[in-house]
Every structure is written in structure tokens, then in C-alpha cells.
Amino acid sequence: MSLLPVEPAWRLAERKEEHRWLIAGLWSEQAVGIVGGEPKCCKSFLALDIAVAVAAGIPCLRRFAVPRSGRVLIYAAEDALHIVKRLQWRLRGHRLRARRSRHPGHHRAHPPPRSQ
Fold first, then answer.
1. Which of 8, 44, 81, 107 has a Cα at 20 to 30 A from 37?
2. Rounded to two decimals, what is the model's pTM?
3. Are 24 and 65 in contact (CB under 8 A)?
């Protein structure tokens, strides 16, 4: 068994066309891309919204369905600390809502992160 399956290029034409979405109508499951644009046009917030949507299994931009949630890795080296904390708070909120929907009656409040 190979950890990384390899298939000859000539066999790719034989495979049935299958289009699976990571975010329906917006980003395909195996896609690699760049979120680019002018400075200060909300690229970072778009990337964060994509990440939160996939991690939480909620619609991206409140419009594009996420067929199944999954793990997300964000390397936010360029972002300010307040943006990173905002992402952590938002993810924590989604996790709490998911837990509450699975276990009604077990509510525990978490305070918002303090700004530094």
C-alpha cells in the first residue's frame, strides 16, 4: 500500500468525471488557489470566513453551502493579533452552538477575549 497513490496520466481520461465541492459553487474540494486583490479589500476576512465555514460546516459568506465540515489549518503570519483572536472567538462560538444543538440544556458561557 502506498501512502501517496500514483496513477499514470493516461488513466485520468478513463475516470468518471466527479465534481465535489469544499464550498458549493465557490471552491472545489481539491482546488488550490490564491485569494488576491487590492490592499484592504477584505482578503484576510474572506480567507477567515472560508476557514470558519469549512471548520464549522456552516455556509460560507452566509450563502455557499459546505457539504461536510473538516479540519482547517490557518497560517496567519501577516495578520494582527486582534484578527487572530477574533477568529479564535468565532470558532469557539460555533463549537459551543454545535455542542448545544447536540446536548440541549448544557449551556456554559465563555467571556469574549480581552483586547491587549
1. 81
2. 0.57
3. yes
pLDDT tens across 81-113, in order? 777 777 777 777 776 676 676 666 655 555 555
Of residues 67 and 86, more confidently modeled:
67
Q: How much is the pLDDT for 66?
A: 96
Hey, what's the torsion of the CAs at 68, 71, 77, 81, to 10 degrees?
Answer: 80
26: Cα separation from own chain's centroid: 12
DSSP assignment, residue 92?
Answer: H
Other beta carbons within 10 Å of 63: 10
For residue 59, give the amino acid letter.
P
Beta strand extents in the chain (DSSP E only): 21-23, 27-28
